[in-house]
Design goal:
Homotetramer. This protein is of the alpha/beta class. The protein folds into two domains: about 150 residues, NAD(P)-binding Rossmann-like Domain (Rossmann fold, 3-Layer(aba) Sandwich), CATH 3.40.50; about 110 residues, Dihydrodipicolinate Reductase, domain 2 (2-Layer Sandwich). It has ten helices and twelve strands. Strands 3-2-1-4-5-6-12 form a seven-stranded parallel beta sheet, sandwiched between helices. A five-stranded mixed beta sheet has the order 8-9-7-10-11. It is elongated, with a radius of gyration of 19 Å.
């Protein structure tokens, strides 16, 4: 049992944090060795299983990740950009695989992650599910096949507690579509429409975000032309799909060379 890869989960009390803890605890291929929360959180000092309302798991929630990371094989991190960048400093120092499902990064965050990836494996993806990553590849292929007579729109829906928009998955799909057309997403992205906006720009990629209830995650990529539409869709009904993908990434990263990877790499879908 002790030779199984040891996994630390950050943001233990969050929706994804709790799902990750259950997934790792139940896995025959890994062991949960740490759970991290921010200083002052009510869970600090409690057994994480009891804090989640179940039986003890033998792992105490900590607000000091330094020692935990030093003894880990991987950290799985679905938190916030600043917290993830801080954690990347520790994982880089410890040469520990850092699986990142956090979204909402700006350019300064991404530069720091790039620096950390020179020393350790980082697997970062806007979505960890197998289905979404297949959808990403399909989106790229369809965009390659269709010219600008087909407008591209990405519609995403999430629960009412999500704080960033468009979702990381929507942006990942937008990047795939732009890559398929040989353009940069930043040059063709339409993320906000309100009032008299004028006609739609030919070749642009539009985004729409829906927030409501407990929607886990829904993404449509629409290719619309005169007289026809192609709609690629993924619907997630259980966060377990993201947790299973994140654990797969953590195990895949063992023994890899330092660098930045994504779920396309993990799943062997990269066609380069």
């Amino acid at each position: 049992m002790s030779d199984l890869p040891g996994i630390v989960i950050t943001g233990a009390s969050g929706r994804m944090g709790q799902m990750l803890i259950r997934t790792v605890s139940d896995s025959p291929r890994a062991r949960l060795i740490g759970a991290v929360e921010r200083p002052g959180h009510a869970w600090i000092g409690q057994d994480v299983g009891a804090a989640m309302g179940g039986g003890d798991l033998g792992v105490t929630v900590s607000d000091d990740p330094l020692e935990l990371v030093a003894g880990a094989h991987a950290v799985i991190d679905f938190t916030a950009p600043d917290a993830t960048v801080d954690m990347a400093t520790l994982t880089a120092q410890a040469r520990v695989v850092h699986v990142i499902g956090t979204t909402g990064f700006d350019d300064s965050h991404l530069k720091k992650l790039e620096a950390a990836a020179r020393h350790a494996v980082i697997v970062r993806a806007g979505n960890m599910s197998v289905g979404v990553n297949l959808l990403t590849q399909l989106t790229k292929k369809v965009a390659q096949a269709l010219d600008e007579d087909f407008d591209i729109e990405i519609v995403e829906a999430h629960h009412n507690q999500k704080v960033d928009a468009p979702s990381g998955t929507a942006l990942m799909l937008g990047e795939a579509a732009a890559d398929g057309r040989g353009v940069l997403l930043d040059h063709v992205s339409d993320r906000a429409r309100d009032g008299i906006t004028g006609k739609r720009e030919r070749g642009h990629i539009g985004f729409s975000a829906i927030r409501g209830g407990d929607i886990v995650g829904e993404h449509d990529v629409i290719f619309a032309a005169a007289g026809e539409r192609i709609v690629l869709r993924h619907i997630a009904t259980d966060r377990a799909v993201f947790a299973r993908g994140a654990l797969k990434a953590a195990l895949w990263g063992q023994g890899r060379k330092p660098g930045q990877y994504d779920m396309i790499d993990v799943l062997g879908l990269n066609d380069n």
